[in-house]
Design a protein that fits this description.
Order of helices and strands of chain B: EHEHEHEHHEHEHEHEHEEHEEHEHEH
Distance between the termini of chain B: 55 Å
Radius of gyration of chain A: 15 Å
Radius of gyration of chain B: 21 Å
Number of domains of chain B: 2
Order of helices and strands of chain A: EHEEEHEEHHHH
Number of domains of chain A: 1
Strand content of chain B: 15-25%
Number of helices of chain B: 13
Number of helices of chain A: 6
CATH topology of chain A: Pyruvate-ferredoxin Oxidoreductase, domain 3
Number of strands of chain B: 14
Structural class of chain A: alpha/beta
Shape of chain A: globular
CATH topology of the largest domain in chain B: Rossmann fold
CATH architecture of chain A: 3-Layer(aba) Sandwich
Distance between the termini of chain A: 27 Å
Strand order of the largest sheet of chain A: 2-3-1-4-5-6
CATH superfamily of chain A: Pyruvate-ferredoxin oxidoreductase, PFOR, domain III
Strand order of the largest sheet of chain B: 3-2-4-5-7-6-12
CATH class of the largest domain in chain B: Alpha Beta
Largest sheet of chain B: 7 strands, mixed
Oligomer: heterodimer
């Protein structure tokens, strides 16, 4: 890896900005260069909120990324808006609880995550973003899962009950992505 | 201290506090309102002053009055708000008071838009208010640099008793990057502020003003300012080169956010075997004239390309410095549109094609 760019997108309240920040904090802990850029501009209530995180081994030039390697999309408007922007060969992580379509692009790795359902089962509707984060890490390993866990401990250390739920769903998202990719490798061989 | 992830606006606010800027006056405006939000919470912790005025005009005058007491004073705003402060800035410069101003530029003219732009260059560098005065103007291109320059700005303002502007844009204000704050700030010693209005008990009153009805006195004041700016030009020039070497055919001149986008352009063109260098002014006033002239004069440079998030403002300074020795071209987008690396790359390839067609 020299530089990796990922857009996190959903509607306000789904935790897309925080998910991007958790990735950014983990990148810093791993000694990487980081830029986190929020969507910034006029936006309607209920429209898309998004941020882009750049993780790099070298000094980051342009902070504006039109075509990222990956997009993690939490709702349908985000799916429609960002799927076409992903670089060929890139990664698309989809919240399949709220998005009932899959991409027609055949040059992407697509991971379907029933994140709302997983969050409800884990006991908190607030951890949708952590399920998505886990799946993203599982699919690209741009930072290590262990270090994301350390970031969560750092941010949620005092809230032990919340930390437990977050850790559990992070792992579940991670495993789901790993199993999806392994399953595809088996079916193709 | 370990690196922490911070939004540009908040990092600049924290840097100001670390530098002893504990008197802050503001009026909210996108894309810099997080500065005020952060300081509203933080100032009481450090026993500082956070005060939101009724308008930017009021804030400008609050800054003027507070600076007269010799305290470290600052304000922040974005383009339309900075326009409203120009009258105060002229008075502050005329009265020789140190203040720090942050302008997180957005698109103009008028109320314009809220997205990043660099179209306040003329206003900042050539003097937005009336009279023979200059503002020392520093333009960061990363959040760490914004922190470092903000800390320095308070010292420079005190040293020259002059306003210092940190000129950023919406991108620097809104994005997050890892930053590190110095554990302690070691500044060279400054002379005591014997000019400050601190209560005249036991001494002659200090009078702080910019009004001189006697033209000879007024001219004298302007000469004092002029001499000061000559010192500033000698001592405070700041710039950075990126991949400037003897193979460069094109020299880009660009500052702030636009300069870091040009770094990506240069890296990507390098992979295509096209050699381009970047000259990045950090101090916009004083402008790094001698250094730019030296780079532009090198025999290998065929064209100087100025890239800005404006319709072409700094390019006038580049032309002034290059003095016709090389063709000076311009590329820019404005109104909140930030040029992509691809757009700049196309522009450079076009320049090189037309250059080789000329043979």
């Amino acid at each position: 890896m020299s530089q990796y760019e990922v857009t996190w997108a959903g509607f306000g309240g789904q935790g897309v900005m925080v998910a991007g920040q958790l990735l950014a904090y983990t990148g810093i802990a791993e000694g990487k260069q980081i830029v986190w850029i929020p969507s910034y501009g006029p936006e309607m209530r209920g429209g898309t909120a998004y941020c882009t995180v750049v993780v790099s081994d070298r000094r980051i030039g342009s902070p504006i990324i039109r075509f990222p390697q990956a997009a993690v999309v939490f709702n349908r408007p985000s799916f429609d808006k960002f799927t076409p922007t992903i670089k060929p060969g890139g990664l698309l992580v989809v919240n399949s609880s709220l998005i009932d379509v899959t991409t027609e692009r055949d040059d992407l790795t697509e991971i379907l995550v029933p994140a709302n359902q997983m969050a409800m089962e884990a006991g908190s509707p607030k951890v949708v973003n952590i399920a998505m984060l886990g799946a993203f890490i599982g699919a690209c390993e741009i930072v290590s899962l262990d270090n994301v866990k350390k970031t969560l401990e750092d941010k949620l250390g005092k809230k032990k009950d919340l930390l437990g739920i977050n850790m559990k769903i992070l792992q579940a998202g991670y495993d789901l992505a790993k199993n999806t990719i392994a399953g595809r490798a088996t079916s193709e061989s | 201290m370990a690196k922490i992830l911070m939004k540009g606006n908040e990092a600049i606010a924290e840097a100001a506090i670390r530098a002893g800027g504990k008197h802050y006056f503001c009026y909210p405006i996108t894309p810099q309102t997080e500065v005020a939000e952060y300081l509203a919470r933080r100032m009481p912790e450090v026993d500082g002053v956070f005060l939101q005025g009724e308008s930017e005009i009021a804030v400008g005058n609050m800054v003027f009055g507070a600076a007269a007491t010799g305290k470290r004073v600052f304000t922040s705003s974005s383009s339309p708000g900075i326009s409203l402060m120009q009258e105060s800035l002229s008075y502050i410069a005329g009265a020789q008071l140190p203040v720090v101003i942050l302008n997180v530029m957005r698109g103009g003219p008028g109320l314009g838009g809220i997205l990043p732009a660099q179209s306040d260059y003329f206003q900042a560098v050539k003097g937005g208010g009336h009279g023979d005065y200059r503002i020392i103007c520093l333009a960061p291109s990363t959040i760490q640099e914004a922190v470092d320059l903000t800390i320095e700005a308070f010292y420079i303002a005190d040293k020259y008793r002059n306003p210092v502007m940190i000129i950023a844009d919406g991108m620097i204000g809104q994005m997050m990057e890892p930053v590190e704050f110095p554990d302690e700030i070691n500044e060279p010693e400054l002379p005591p502020k014997t000019w400050a209005a601190t209560g005249a008990k036991g001494r002659e009153p200090n009078i702080i003003k910019s009004l001189y009805l006697d033209p000879l006195r007024l001219e004298d004041n302007s000469i004092v300012l002029y001499k000061k700016y000559e010192e500033v030009k000698k001592n405070e020039v700041r710039f950075e080169n990126y991949k400037v070497n003897k193979k460069n055919k094109v020299l880009i001149v660009s500052y702030g956010t636009m300069a870091r986008i040009c770094q990506t352009v240069i890296d990507e063109l390098e992979a295509e075997d096209i050699s381009v260098g970047l000259f990045r002014p950090i101090s916009l006033f004083p402008y790094p004239e001698a250094a730019l002239k030296e780079e532009a004069d090198r025999a290998n440079i065929k064209t100087v390309l100025t890239v800005e998030m404006s319709m072409g403002q700094m390019v006038e300074d580049v032309e002034r410095v290059v003095k016709g020795a090389k063709p000076v071209k311009f590329f820019g987008r404005t109104g909140g549109i930030v040029p992509t690396p691809d757009e700049v790359k196309e522009q450079i390839k076009y320049l090189l094609r037309s250059e080789s067609a000329k043979g």
